[in-house]
Amino acid sequence: MKAFSNRNIGLDIMGWSILAIVLFLFIPMLYPAKLPLVYHIYHLVLFTVLFGIYYFNIKIVIPKTVNKSINFFYVLLFLGMCFLVVSLMNFVETFLNLQQEVYRSLYPEKFYVASEHKSYANYYVFFVTAIVLMTGFTNFLIRKWNTEERKKLAVQELKAKAELGNLKAQINPHFFFNTLNTIYALTHKDVEKSQDSLLKLSKMMRYAMNEDNEEFVSLQNELVFIQHYLDLMLHRLPSNVTLEYHISENHYEAKIAPMILLTFIENCFKHGVTSHEDCFIRISTVITEGVFILETENPLFENREKSNGIGIENTIKRLDIIYNDGYKLEQSIIEGKYFISLKIKLK
Asked: Which tens digits make up the pLDDT trace of 51-78?
């Protein structure tokens, strides 16, 4: 807001500087002789009046009479302000005896006869005043539009953050429910492994509690989290399921949104495992030229669980909110196999 206000002030200063250059330098240069002092006094008064009428227009008249476009009442006030300035400057011109003094400077050898010389100063003042007032009107509408746009963006940002918090809150319970099921199944097979699994789960829970509130986290920590999850799944999978995964390492500088990868990996086990035939699941991650790539492959079986709306759909919403067009998700089914390729431009 402060930067926007400073920019407005800067534009105002530039506009008034241009007008001053035109009135005090450019126009006098058009005359073939040096102009008298009263000419410059006249234009100094005109400049001051225009300055006052400009801000009277944008601060008082327009806010009280104009909503989104010009209306008849404002047109009347607009013309009234123009004629007011013309009348005032006509008085100043007469008081300073401007026309006669300028004529004497231009034609010193000639005698000035007022009846033979028509003044066009009123038209000149009316034209300049109209330009200044229309500039003010245009600036007012532009600034009002910019203010409304900033408010809309602020509301959208708050809405996006609220929606993002909602989605994350939905995903985490879903994940921990599945993980606890994994460890429960493991306790019936191997107590030692179940203890190791509980330790890994505690690390995962600590990570989720500490990092999930952050907008971006270390990619290295996120991949360690995924590694623990896959280690847990290895204990749970039946012998007919082959799990092959490669999780890249040593990405200490890269950042990624937390808990954004888990849903795609969970999806492999949710839809790609059955006890009736051999299954193969492949998961890999890699970074290429600042782009993180997650690829998964699994057979596609009919889902026996009823979807509750939590999963890939919500994660895609999170990706849209956080990365906008900074990610690309491709999903395909080829010969009964389900492929996912997720590419994220890293922060």
From this structure: 999 999 999 998 888 766 667 888 899 9
Q: pLDDT of 333-344, one tens digit each?
A: 998 899 999 999
Residues whose CB is less than 8 angstroms from the CB of residue 278 and which lie 6 or more positions away in sequence, other chains included: 240, 241, 242
Q: What is the DSSP letter of 8?
A: H
CATH number at residue 319: 3.30.565.10
CA neighbor of 1 nearest in space, from 149, 114, 110, 103: 149
Residues 1 and 86: their CA atoms lie apart, in Å, by: 37
> Are residue 139 and residue 206 in the same domain, yes or no?
no
- Tell me: do 17 and 144 sit in the same domain: yes
Cα 123 to Cα 100, 119, 188, 333: the distances in Å are 18, 9, 98, 76
Distance separating alpha carbons of residues 175 and 108, to the nearest angstrom? 96
Inter-axis angle of helices 219-236 and 121-187, nearest 10: 30
Q: Which domain holds residue 318?
A: 190-345
